Amino acid sequence: MLTLSNPTRLPTSANNPPDHGGDPPETRQDEKALALPARVFLEPPARADTLWTKEQFIALVMHMMNDNPINHFLTVWRGDDGKPGYAKADSHRRASEHAKWTYDTITGKARRKTSMGVYSKNADNESTWAALDFDAHEGGHEVAKDRAIRAFSLLLTYRDRYVILSASGRGYHVFVFARDLKPVREWTALLKDVAGSIPVPIQDGQCELFPAEGTEKQRTGRAIRIPGSYNPNTDSSELIIAETIRPLLDQLTEEAFSSTHTRASTAPRDLVRDREVNNSSYGTKRLYLLDQPPRKEVGQNRKQNGFLSPTTPRLIEDTIAKHPILAKGTRHKVLATLTGNLIHKFGFTLSCDVVQAHWANNIKNLTTAYPEHFREFCAIWNSLLKEIVENFSAKERAIYDKLNTTTQQEAFVLVCSFAYLADSEPFPIAQNSLADRLRQTQQGASYIIKVLIGLEAITPTEKARINRRAARYRWLLSQSEPKAQRPLVAGAFESAYQYATQTEGVTT
Predict the structure, then answer these.
(1) Is the pLDDT of residue 265 over 60?
(2) Which of 162, 284, 351, 485 is least surrounded, with the fewest CB atoms within 10 Å of its CB?
(3) CB 466 within 8 A of CB 501
(4) Greater pLDDT, 134 or 30
(5) Residue 474 burial by CB count (10 A; 0-12/13-18/19+): exposed, middle or buried?
(6) For 394-432, what is each residue's pLDDT tens digit?
(7) Are 151 and 194 in contact (CB under 8 A)?
(8) CA dist., res. 232 & res. 34, Å (int)
(9) Helix (H) or strand (E) run with residue 358 in it
């Protein structure tokens, strides 16, 4: 259950909120005397497109869809007569496409202005977000603004929650987000606690809740416009006043696929949860198509698989070819060797695809079904990862623990591997190759490199030469032991390093 804390002061950083607890409400100082942290307050308020990329905006929209069908959203527009229009999306509509048009409207590039709203629940009465709508009708602008700032301030005190405060045009919206789906009843209880602490009456014209009391009994719940989107009533896009959404957006845009809940509406066949992985890097549920026959190859179609580097397909093929299962009874040993190789070459997502293709290519010498084979792979991967992390030097472990997402930690392991092979010399990191290995976009790989530079794990030594040479970096952290004494599991890293050093058109 989400419970409201009552801090005596606001946190100085949105990334380090205080623990729950504090003084009781009657002894708490007036929130009016509290100021928003400078890191999250925008002066002046800004348009959404100046804060978030199109990719981030779309990721936020899809996160707010709550695993509903991809056409389960509200279309919003302004008619030729100047009147606003609202309608449930037609069956052929797709939320991701409409999100693109919504973003283009914010930037002023859309041929026809449009917006969209999302519903505050799914069929399981869960949501990844909640919102308060403070109306500013009949001259109550300053009152509504003060209430919204108080609500935003209170919500900042929750751990693992992300908040947006926006000026909707005729009032103010305060959105709060979680990484995972949460029960609607918990969101409603949270919003009621916040409203009671302001205080503000929960009623039309004052403060409306999304999800509101009784939403669980409704078929869809009520919809609210996406943060920062076009408001047809004012013929303008709402402005963002303050936000702490960046860490969540980083996670959403870095991930190659959802790692926390299914998106059944986007896949023609059922996805099943294989297992929950519990260790320092894999603490989320991952999804696999275990009910489908494994493919014999990891496809190379650019549109389907997103490979940016021409070396990636060849690297995958060579990895599979170097680990044949030549006789029955040798499967587990080969799988262990293959996994030891993969963990130093690729992230977990792409490694899963490689393991699937490897199984299909060696099926004539296999008696174990793929689901069991895959579970063994997960167990070996987790064991190896635990050993790798435990063998980090103190400085390496400190940086690893500071990384916010699984993808960033996977990148750290790969880059650390390249650094070990380079033996204190500068080594290449090709953005396209790194993106493929982590199943990310080139922009995502670029961001991860910047994170590692910012944490002083690596430093650039040579810029990339377009279509000639990848950028080079030096490892800044002390290593756990000299290269000569470090055993490389299953001879890993070598071919990965060779491929990374090849000519590749990348940018820094």
Answers:
(1) no
(2) 485
(3) no
(4) 134
(5) middle
(6) 999 999 999 878 888 999 999 998 888 888 899 999 999
(7) yes
(8) 34
(9) helix 348-361
DSSP SS3 for 429:
coil
- The amino acid sitting at 251 is Q
For the chain, how many helices (H) and strands (E)? 15, 17
Residue 224 half-sphere exposure, CB side, CA atoms within 13 Å? 23
Instruction: Look up residue 105 and give its amino acid.
Output: T
Q: For residue 487, what is the enclosing H or E element? A: none
**What distance in Å separates the CA atoms of residue 103 and residue 309, rounded to the nearest whole number?**
29
Query: Are 323 and 341 contacting, i.e. CB atoms less than 8 angstroms apart?
Result: yes
Dihedral, CA of residue 68, residue 71, residue 73 and residue 79, to nearest 10: 180
331-342 helix and 370-390 helix, angle to the nearest 10 degrees: 50
CA 186 to chain centre: 23
pLDDT in tens, 135-193: 987 668 899 999 999 999 999 888 789 999 999 888 999 999 999 999 999 999 999 99
Dihedrals φ, ψ of 397, to 5°? Answer: -65, -35
Contacts for 30 with CB less than 8 Å, ≥ 6 apart: none
- φ/ψ (deg, to 5) at 451: -60, -45
Residues across the chain: 508
> Distances from the Cα of 483 to the Cαs of 3, 130, 166, 362, 472, in angstroms?
51, 51, 53, 34, 20
CB neighbours of 393 closer than 8 A, spacing ≥ 6? 477, 478, 479, 480
Asked if residue 126 lies in contact with residue 185, where contact means CB atoms within 8 angstroms, the answer is: no
pLDDT number for residue 306:
55
Q: Which amino acid is at 390?
A: E
pLDDT tens, residue by residue, 227-251: 999 999 999 999 999 999 988 998 8
- DSSP 8-state class, residue 159: T
Each residue of 370-409: b (16+ CB within 10 Å) or e? beebbebbbebbbebbeebbeebeeebbebbeebebbbbb
Q: How would DSSP label each residue in 387-398?
A: HHHHTS-HHHHH
State the pTM of this model.
Answer: 0.49
Kindly indicate the confidence band of residue 308, based on its pLDDT and cuts at 50, 70 and 90. confident
Q: Which residues pair with residue 130 across a beta bridge?
A: 176
